[in-house]
Design a protein that fits this description.
0% strand; mainly alpha; Arc Repressor Mutant, subunit A
């Protein structure tokens, strides 16, 4: 006989199910066109049961974004405490790749609902985090081309996720290819500092 599930664990599982279903619906029909009623119906729960966890669509989206924001804040804190070396920048990109692929549905939502995201708090939070990461990748004293390469490495990861969703192949191979491009850009930036 199995161990009974703790109430807190069930609540967490329900929250995650709500987040997952909401993201699916937001991706299918757009954030603005999705109602709490539709989310509840897809989950096969009452609207009141959904309200127990989230009062609004933005509350759902904010909770999902917080799950992404936490590891991004931790990555920024880690990178700020490291020397600005090529090895640190490469490790930052590797860790960012892990964050991106752990939140692939949210990033797709961001890409497909840019106007909505721009108006919500999560959009500003994400932009600020990405700007901080970009600042940690570039050397402000480097030539402009080197700075552009460094920051482009970060955005290449976003673009790569978008581009590879329509490319056949193993997801891990796609992820590795995207990371390889980003790492190459940072390495080229560092190499230009040594030769320039």
């Amino acid at each position: 006989m199995g161990t009974p599930q703790q109430p807190q664990s069930r609540r967490g599982d329900t929250r995650r199910r709500i987040q997952q279903v909401a993201l699916e619906l937001f991706a299918e029909q757009g954030y603005e066109k999705t109602s709490l009623r539709e989310i509840a119906e897809r989950l096969d729960v009452t609207k009141a049961a959904l309200y127990y966890h989230f009062k609004t669509k933005e509350d759902i989206l904010s909770s999902i974004a917080e799950d992404l924001a936490r590891p991004m804040r931790e990555l920024i804190t880690w990178a700020e405490s490291q020397p600005r070396t090529l090895a640190t920048k490469q490790e930052l990109l590797r860790r960012y790749s892990d964050i991106l692929w752990g939140s692939v549905d949210l990033f797709r939502f961001f890409q497909e609902n840019q106007a909505t995201v721009r108006e919500l708090t999560i959009g500003e939070t994400f932009r600020t985090s990405v700007k901080s990461l970009g600042g940690l990748l570039k050397d402000p004293d480097a030539p402009i081309a080197a700075q552009v390469r460094s920051v482009t490495a970060l955005y290449a990861m976003h673009a790569g996720m978008f581009v590879t969703q329509n490319v056949e192949g193993d997801p891990e191979e796609k992820r590795a290819a995207i990371l390889e491009v980003a790492l190459d850009l940072v390495a080229q930036s560092e190499a230009s500092l040594l030769t320039g």
